[in-house]
Amino acid sequence: MAMAEFAFNNKVHTATKSSPFQVNYGREPKMGFDIGKKGKNEKTEEFVREIKERYEKARAALVRVQEKMKRQADRNRKEAEEYRIENKVLISTKNFSIELMKKVTKKLTEKFIGLYMVRKVVSENVVELELLTLLRIHPVVNVRRIIKYREQVEGQKKIPPPPIEVAGEKEYEVEEILDRQERRGKMKYLVK
Fold this sequence. Notes:
Blueprint: H1 2-10, H2 20-25, H3 44-74, E1 88-92, H4 98-101, E2 112-123, E3 126-130, E4 140-142, E5 146-148, E6 164-166, E7 169-171, E8 177-183, E9 186-191
């Protein structure tokens, strides 16, 4: 373990361009057995000044690297949407198990479910929802797992007219057949 620590402290760091040992002590570590000199060290003030300069250089280099990393990370980051109490939201099913969704395959499940209300805003990234007990998930969720519910614009979704009962069977009134297609041996019609 001591050899690994020595090797790590002797290696030049990419951000500071010097080894951790040199940044802390102002010199490279001794590789062998050197006999130390006895007597008064007259270069103490110069040594302290050099150490402070090295610390400042290392700190400046780390700040530059940190800013560069932050710029890179923020490139694809967008502002979190602001939620308020009683906002209507939909919750993502991306990380739900198939058993929880009660579906045969994950491919056929909805991407977002429900219409839930925000009960409490814990922080700008976390909200508490009013969930059904059947859902069996924790009510406090990250805002990345929810989206705001948007009311449908008038005319956006056409509600089909109710069926007409003829001789006890439900039938629909058709104005015209727009298109037809055969799928798996059955004819499918696009009607108006």
